[in-house]
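Lab channel / #folding
Pinned by the channel admin:
"Please post every new chain as: sequence first, then the C-alpha cells as a reply. Keep commentary short and put observations after the output so the thread stays searchable."

First post following the new format, from NK:
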Amino acid sequence: MRKLNINIPAYRFWFAAMALAVAALAVLYVLDKPQWPLLCVMAVLLLLMIAAARSVHRPLHAMQSGLYLIREQDYSSRLRRVGQADADRVVELFNSLMDSMKHERLRLEEQNRFLDILIEASPSGIAICNFDGTVSSANSAFRAMATPPVMEVLGRLADGRSEVCRPGESQILRCSRRSFMDSGFHRPFFMIDLLTDEIVQAEKAVFNKMVRTISHEVNNSLGSVISVLESLEELHADDPVVTSAISAAHNSCLNLSLFTRGYAEVAKLPKPEPEPIELKVFVERLLPSLAKLCTNDIELRAESADSPTVSADPVLMERVLVNLVKNSAESIGSRGGTITIRSATGTLIVEDNGPGLSAEATGRIFTPFFSTKHSDRGLGLMLVSDILHSQHLRFSLITDPDDGLTRFTIKWQ
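Reply from TO:
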C-alpha cells in the first residue's frame, strides 16, 4: 500500500489547542475552581494565540512579498526560507512559479526579437497600423517603398484587398491591406511586395516570343514578295507608271522589314559589359551627337556639380541617352524648350520642360508597346528599361507637379 503523507499545517494545530484551552477554561469557570488554575489556563491560551498568530503571519507575509514582486514584474528576485513549514511551502511554490514565469518571459522576448529581426530583414514592406488606420510601425523595406502614390493606393484599399501599381518608377508593386485580431478588434496592417523582376521577365518573355513569331513570318513572306517585285520592276522598266507603283510597293516591304528588325534588336539586347565611366566626360563627349536629335527651337545643355565615376556599359548607356534625349525632343515638339542632362554622385538625370506625363501614362510608361505618341511603337523607353534593368540600376520617369518638369532619373546603388 502507498503510504499517505499527511502534512497538517501548523496553524491548524495551534487553533485546535486554543479551542481545547478555551473549553478547559470554560469547564474550570463552571466548576468554580480556584483562581490559579484559571490564570494558568489563560496564560496557556495567550501563548497559544501568539504561536497561532506567528504561524499565520509568516505565510501571509511571504504571500504579500511575492505579490509585490509579481506586481513589480521582478522575475529575478526570490523569497528566502524562514524555517516555518507553512511559510516555506509558500516560498517554494512562489519561487517555482517565478522560475516558470521568468523562463516564459525570456522565451517570449526571444521570440519577439526573432520576429522583429525577421520582419526587418524581409524584402516585403510591412507596416502595422493603429485602429484608425494610421501607420504606427514599419520595417525599412516599407519605408523605402512607401512613396505618396503608394500610400494613396493603400489608403483606398478595403480590408483583404490587393492592387498592383506602378508608382511612377520602374518598380511594379503589389499593395495589400490585411488585418488581425487584437484585443477583440480588427487591427489593420499593410504589405508591399516588389513584383518588378517577375513581371518584367514575364512581359519580356511574351514580347520576345511575339517578335520571333512575327519576324519569322514577315521575313519569310517579304523575301519572296521583294524578289517578285524586283523581277517585275525589271520587266516593266519601260513603263514609268508601273515602275513607280512597283517601286512604292518595294519600299513599303523594305520599311516593314526595318519595322520588324527594330523589335528584333530589342529582343536581342547584348549582355552588358560594365566598366568605370566618368559621367561628366561621358555626357560631354556625346553632347554634339545628341544635339543633332533636337530641332533649332530646343536647347540641349549639360550640367555637372562634380565628376562622379560609376560602373556601366558605355555602349548601352549611349543608347539610353540617345533614346531619352530623342523622347524628350519629341515630347517638346515644335513649341521649343530645354533639355538638361545633369550628372551627380551616383545619379544621372535627363530633364525637359515638355507637356509632361499624365497620371495614367506615368503608371504605364514602361509597359511594352505603350506610347504617348500615336505614331510611335513604344520601343524607346522599353529599350531603355531593358538596358537599365540588365545593369541592376534604379530609374524613374515622373513629371514634378511643383515645377512641371519631366525628369528621367537613373541611380546607381
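NK: Residues 1-8 have pLDDT under 50 and may be disordered.
TO: also worth noting, The first strand starts at residue 125 and ends at 129.
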